[in-house]
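Field log, afternoon session.

UNIT: design team B
ACTIVITY: writing a sequence onto a fixed backbone
BACKBONE:
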């Protein structure tokens, strides 16, 4: 008998993304938070099919309690507000509006902040110092207070609230991207790439950017949470979305005076904001742990 040759089979080494997913799945709290966040996103996407009524439509039943109350009406699952608008429909459309506004804010601030961060890390020292001093000046002030001041100067309204919150978030992206790039520039693979003749553009896109993506992804997640919170705060103060827009902060602003006689009109939008922010922050923490950013 001729012995069959034995071949060595090298074990498959999982890729970076596979290792991230495997590590993230071990964090049950983060996975649960991701499921909740995905449900909220799906509700926002399919709001026109989920909400039973138009969010601005008014009915005769004023301040009707949720259906589980003795005096509740099954037509209005979560009751109505003081103007007879269905609260469930307003919360569903509020999820759509709040997530859309937060996405716009994060895209604006991330684009500008990452570009400035790259500029400070890869250009002359004097440009680095100027941008860093401006960044430190903005970060020295509470973000919500600064957003209120900006909106007060340029005027209340939804577009101005978006600009204000975006300006407040830009310094965070500047520092995260700059520090990540500076950290990578000290590594041997960057020196080898430079000696190989790569210019700054190729060095950044092919070598540095893939290695700073974990830091940027986590910052995007946390910035999304901050954007929702501050847009809601500006709406509550009457400086952001204006009635009848079904934005969560605006719903709270319209209803808080009725907290003693219709507490559900305040409690339910507050819980919507709370669970959305909690799920985003837990997902961000899970991503940070999975990507080993603190190791």
């Amino acid at each position: 008998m001729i012995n069959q040759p034995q071949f060595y089979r090298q074990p498959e080494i999982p890729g970076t993304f596979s290792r991230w997913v495997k590590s993230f799945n071990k964090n049950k709290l983060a996975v649960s938070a991701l499921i909740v966040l995905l449900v909220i996103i799906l509700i926002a996407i399919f709001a026109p099919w989920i909400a039973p009524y138009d969010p601005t439509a008014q009915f005769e039943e004023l301040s009707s309690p949720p259906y589980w109350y003795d005096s509740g009406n099954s037509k209005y699952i979560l009751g109505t507000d003081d103007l007879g608008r269905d609260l469930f429909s307003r919360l569903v459309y509020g999820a759509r509006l709040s997530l859309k506004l937060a996405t716009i804010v994060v895209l604006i601030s991330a684009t500008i902040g990452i570009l400035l961060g790259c500029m400070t890390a890869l250009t002359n020292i004097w440009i680095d110092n100027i941008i860093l001093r401006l960044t430190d000046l903005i970060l020295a002030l509470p973000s919500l207070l600064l957003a209120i001041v900006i909106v007060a100067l340029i005027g209340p309204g939804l577009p101005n609230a978006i600009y204000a919150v975006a300006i407040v978030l830009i310094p965070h992206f500047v520092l995260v991207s700059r520090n990540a790039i500076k950290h990578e520039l000290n590594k041997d693979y960057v020196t080898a790439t430079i000696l190989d003749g790569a210019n700054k553009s190729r060095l950044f896109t092919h070598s540095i950017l893939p290695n700073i993506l974990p830091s940027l992804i986590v910052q995007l997640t946390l910035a999304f949470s901050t954007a929702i919170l501050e847009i809601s705060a500006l709406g509550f103060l009457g400086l952001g979305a204006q009635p009848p827009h079904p934005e969560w902060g605006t719903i709270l602003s319209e209803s808080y005076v009725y907290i003693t006689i219709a507490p559900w009109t305040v409690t339910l939008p507050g819980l919507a904001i709370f669970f959305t922010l909690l799920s985003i922050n837990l997902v961000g923490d899970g991503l940070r742990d999975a990507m080993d950013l603190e190791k």
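LOG NOTE: The chain is about 70% helix and 0% strand.
NEXT ACTIVITY: expression trials, pending approval
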